[in-house]
Every structure is written in structure tokens, then in C-alpha cells.
Fold this protein.
Amino acid sequence: MAKDQLIIFDTTLRDGEQSPGASMTRDEKVRIAKALERLKVDVIEAGFAVASPGDFEAVNAVAKAVTESTICSLARALDKDIEAAAAAIAPAPRRRIHTFIATSPIHMQHKLKMEPEAVIEQAVRAVKKARQYTDDVEFSAEDAGRSDIDFLARVFEAVIDAGATTCNFPDTVGYNLPFQIEETIRELLTKIPNADKAIFSVHCHNDLGLAVANSLAAVRAGCRQIECTINGLGERAGNTSLEEVVMAIRTRADIVDVETHIDATHIVPTSRLVSSITGFPVQPNKAIVGANAFAHESGIHQDGVLKHRETYEIMRAEDVGWNTNKMVLGKHSGRAAFKSRLDELGIILADDEALNDAFVRFKDLADRKHEIFDEDLHALLNAQQIESEFARYDLADLNVTSKLGIAPIAHITLNVDGHRVEAEGHGDGPVDAVYKAIESVAKSGADLQLYSVNAITTGTDSQGEVTVRLERSGRIVNGLGADTDIVVASAKAYLHALNLMERPLDRQHPQKSEGI
């Protein structure tokens, strides 16, 4: 007997981007969307088109770049939102509008200041409006996890009659426990007379660490779409992790009677791409994609795995893409091999000039690092994009003196608006000294909220990837820098963050926008 198909709805580019500091540029969104397409994600929520011109352009660019997955834009239950969403996704062969309104008493009373009947009327009006542009319309009842179930049933019945093809149950604040989700979904499907005319979906947040468990409980109750993100990225504690829920379904096929289209061999490469672009490192013990996910240090475990893998491994590392990141390039590799590998990774460069620039950078890195891994290529292309962005500050030279018992001294030369400026800084360590030297020139007034170092690959010659998060007047930016010299990488990351802070803001930070 054939299993039901579970739709995987990825919202990394929308809800995932609502993580503080995780804003992505248009080109970065396109790179991630292409990776999600290779992963065979069914629906890609590309953003919130009405939020700003920049958000509209990013959604539109994804809609033009992706041909296999359905492209979706979020929209409040307002005409202007729905019109913007429809225009942004218009180039996509497969299009969805995802509209929402809150249904919980606390949201209706304090946020919307609307009576329940008015909420139903607006939800119906929004769905009918969206159906003018596409036959694929999703409706979400924001904060469904704290909504009255009888009212929720009335809302879903009404929007299905109005033309909604997917009804989504968001646990917006991660409040529910798995048994509650399962019981609620089962009851809803019984109460709603036209439930068979729509696919029911679940969107769980991870505030109590239960997003994946709650999503699986909803599937057991009858939901046939899960909304999730790569690495569980998202505001507060994040969202349902795509890689965890997909592999749980595949590994426990004896209990969860559904299947997905996902090509799991692309999970690890996609995870690393998202981590690299957003600057959010994956913790080593993260399920599926963490560096230690398939590592065994205990002698008893090692002995068991050597004798029979299934004694301590419930899935194969290569099935999720761990063996796809082997070294394929080195200092003797030619341009054709380099371009071929970029094509395999889904990295598309604008023109021959961009390819030539990337190849020069690759050769320079290969002279300093014997083995070039896929992760190095992603970092190299990130650096190339960073340098092509608006840049008021650019690192020209750096010299740091550090000796045991003596405070480090950093001498830097910056290009500031095209003029060379030299500065000196003293600090508790070499990185602190560099940052104080930079700030003696920039005088940014920004607070350093995060400084994170992550080895891109293994070995002492690995590139270090540094993430710097700066905050000023409520605006949060992430700066990225990579180099085999960690101090240089740190300087690049800080300067990248300063450049982002100085760049004109063409889009509202996603965290300031409404979401589910």
C-alpha cells in the first residue's frame, strides 16, 4: 500500500531570516533557494514581499531562479500584502500565496483589537483575494496553539469554502506539548466538515525544544505538510529542523506512515551553506548535521560499530551527505575543474569576469592551503560577494605584535572611502587590539554582541570563519570573514559588519515584520 506524501514546506528564507542578525541579501537567498531545489523541497517560502522593496526583489529573484519547487510569499490578510505577494512570485512556474491572521483570544484582543466574527470575515476575504492570482492558497491561523478549538474549526471551514487549499496550524510561541498537538489536530479534522478538501499543515516553534516532536505528532494525527527550516533556524529558539524531521520520518517508517520527496544526500551541504551565509554555526552535537553526529569516541561504541554498524548508528552518514564534501581540488587544478565543481555545488557566477576573479582567489587559497574542500569554496564565494558590496572600509594591511606578558599591539591600514588611513590599537588579545584600532578610525558607536570562530574544515591549515554581530540603535548586522589567519579573518568580519551598518537600509529587518 502506497504511503501518503508529506509536503516539506521550507521557510528558511522567511521565518529563518527572522533570527537576529540572519538577514540575507537577494543573491544569498537565491543561492539557498537553489540548494533547497536540489534538496527537492516541495515549497520554498521566499520571504514577505510587502515588507520592503528589498524583500520584494528577493522573492522575485527566487521566483525567477527556481523552476522545480513551488515558490511562496507570506502575506497578512490585507489586500496590499496579497497584491505584493502575487506580483513577486509571478515569474515562478509554481506559485503559492500564504496569508494569515491571528485567531487566539490574546492576539485578537490585544494585537488585532478585532472581534472573532470580524477575524473570520477578514480571513475569508483574504483567501478569496489570493485566489484571484493563484489556485494554490495557504491560510494560517496565527497562534493556533492557543486558540479556542471550536473557533479555529469555524475559521478553517470558512477559508476552505473560500478556496484555501492548505490550512496551517502554527504553534507560534512553541507552547504546546506533542500529545496536545496530536489530540487537537485529530479533533479539528473531525469537527471541520470540509476538511477533506484541503491539506492540513503544522508550523512549530522550538521554545520548549519540542518543535520536531510536535510536528511528528501532527503528522500522526493527519497533517500532510510540515513547515520547517534548515538547521532549525528561526527567531527565538528557532523552528522545526528540516533535517531532523525528514530523517525521523525516514528512519522510523514503521511508525510514521508517510514519505517525502527529499533527496537527503544534499542535507549536509545545504546545512553548511545556510550556516556560512547566515553566520550561525551548527553546534557539534546537533542531530544529523553536527560535526559529532556520527562520531564515536567511547571504546564500547567504536567496537560495536566496527563489528556491526547498526549497533550504534540508526542511519548512515553518507545518506545525509557527509561523504559528499571530500577534497576534489588543489593548487594544480585548472579553471575547467574549478568551474565544474562550482556548477555541482549550484554556485552560479554572474559572468566570466566574476569567474576569473573567483579562480584567482582559489589559486591564492590553494597556495596557502593544501586541500580545498567544498566548504572552502563556499567561503571563498562569500568573501567575493562581500567585497563586491557597498564598502566604506577595506583592509589594506595588518600587523599585530603579541608576546607573553605584554599587551598586544595592532597596526592597521584601512582604505576609508578611497583614502588610506593608518591606526594603532592596544588590547587584551590580538583580536581585541585589532578591533580597537579599527574603532579608533570608524568610531561606529556599535556594540559587539557576538564574536564567533568556526573552523571551516579540519586540519591546522583550515580557514577560520569569523562571525561578528554588531548592534546600533536597534539595528543588528552580522559580519563574516574567512582566512587561514584567524586575526585577519576577525578583522575582515568586523569591517564587513561596519560596512553593512553603513549601507543604506532598503529593507526592514525581518524580525520587525509580523510572522507566524
